[in-house]
Amino acid sequence: VVTPRLAAMSTKSNLWQCDVCFLSNSSDISKCKACESPKPEAPTQATSVATPRLAAMSTKSNLWQCDVCFLSNSSDISKCKACESPKPEAPTQATSVATPRLAAM
Fold first, then answer.
1. What is the C-alpha to C-alpha distance for residues 12 and 10, in angstroms, rounded to an integer?
2. Strand positions, DSSP E, the chain
3. Dist CA 15 CA 11 (whole Å)
4. What are the backbone dihedrals phi and psi of residue 37, each rounded to the nearest 5 degrees, phi first?
5. Which long-range contacts (CB under 8 A, 24 or more apart) does 75-79 make?
6. Which pTM was predicted?
7. β-strands 63-65, 24-26: how paired?
8. Confidence of residue 83 (pLDDT cuts 50, 70, 90)
9. Which among 62, 66, 63 has a CA at the least distance from the CA of 80?
10. Which of 6, 27, 44, 51 sits at a 20 to 30 Å CA gap from 38?
11. Are 80 and 73 in contact (CB under 8 A)?
């Protein structure tokens, strides 16, 4: 079953790409679904102040791309905001494994 919203999103002309996190969004929304950055053509409020998190995401070097859903995420988080997959180079919690002691000979 194809809903009207799904049909509208099926063509690239009905999508816009976020300048901050590069997510493709439906043309009928004025803010990115992932990072809430305004749509490039959308009017912005003069009193809008970027949050520190948004400012950190605005530089490509401060981003990492999820291996699962390909969303660009801020480098200061260890799992994807969309699918919660771990950051590729994020430290994993290692389980300690006891090594058997060698018997004295």
1. 7
2. 15-17, 24-26, 63-65, 72-74
3. 7
4. -70, 150
5. none
6. 0.35
7. unpaired
8. very high
9. 66
10. 6
11. yes
Residue 92 CA to residue 48 CA, distance in Å, equals 37
Residues 17 and 39: their CA atoms lie apart, in Å, by 8
Contact yes or no for 72/21 (Cβ under 8 A)? yes
Q: What is the mean pLDDT of residues 36-65?
A: 65
Bridge pairing between strands 24-26 and 72-74: unpaired
**Residues 76/51, Cβ–Cβ less than 8 Å:** no
Do residues 60 and 21 touch, judged by C-beta distance below 8 A? no
Yes or no: say if 84 and 90 are a contact pair by the CB < 8 Å rule. no
Between CA 74 and CA 22 the distance in angstroms is 12
Instruction: Enter the tokens of residue 95.
Output: 């389980």
- Look at residue 57 and tell me whether its pLDDT is greater than 80: no
